[in-house]
Design a protein that fits this description.
alpha/beta, four-stranded antiparallel beta sheet, 8 helices
Length: 235
């Protein structure tokens, strides 16, 4: 690897930018493709590099002039949990084991404690402030768990105005219907509101906080890996 390539790699990783190193296996020429790049359909290798970035998958591909190898360098996906509740205590470590950089957000300091969430990033900011700082992107999932509109709604509004790949909200169907009405009153349109997975989680008959956490992480995984509109079910 040439020094210029290494320097660009280190710079991109320091900035947490999704990037793919494309190597021509015949000539050895290397260059980077960024997820933020504007890519035309005529650029076959760049299109395949972008696909690899979105799929989190390195590997060889065929180009117009031979074989290439695409090696992805993605920052870890992020999970922002609003509400330092019992479900979050189960979900946060599960998600961390699955490779997510987890942040638990709750201004209630009696809930958001190191004792309840060891070795995890905690924020005692109000959710809208935390979201403004964290800036959810296409590699971010946001889940609200408090049942408190003062906490959940500002986080949902921020998430739905971002590129977050997954937005979920805990609550019954009745609670969710009331939530949707509030979000419409706040100015969100049907397309934005339709992105919410609520009631959150796959429909697996979950009852306990740990089981609900499993259903939520499973649904996040489904949306991330399969893309598009994964089924919205009740935990």
């Amino acid at each position: 690897m040439k020094r210029a390539i290494l320097d660009e790699l280190l710079r991109g990783r320091a900035e947490n930018r999704p990037m793919a190193l494309v190597t021509n296996l015949k000539s050895g020429i290397q260059n980077f493709v960024y997820l933020s790049d504007t890519i035309t359909k005529d650029s076959m290798i760049a299109v395949q590099a972008r696909t690899a970035l979105l799929a989190d998958r390195s590997g060889p591909v065929d180009g117009p002039d031979g074989r290439y190898f695409i090696q992805i360098f993605n920052p870890p996906p992020r999970l922002m949990l609003v509400g330092a509740v019992h479900i979050a205590q189960a979900l946060a470590p599960m998600a961390a084991l699955a490779g997510y950089a987890v942040t638990v957000i709750d201004p209630r300091r009696s809930f958001a404690t190191d004792a309840r969430f060891p070795d995890l990033s905690l924020s005692t900011e109000w959710p809208d402030e935390a979201m403004a700082r964290l800036k959810p992107d296409s590699r971010s999932a946001v889940v609200t768990l408090t049942h408190d509109p003062k906490l959940d709604d500002p986080a949902l509004i921020s998430a739905l105005n971002s590129d977050a790949f997954y937005v979920g909200a805990l609550g019954s169907r009745k609670t969710h219907a009331a939530r949707l009405a509030r979000l419409r009153e706040a100015g969100l349109n049907d397309a934005q509101i339709g992105r919410i997975h609520g009631p959150v989680g796959l429909s697996i008959g979950a009852v306990s906080p740990a089981e609900i956490a499993v259903s939520i992480l499973a649904q996040i995984t489904e949306v991330r890996r399969k893309g598009g509109e994964a089924a919205r079910g009740e935990a």
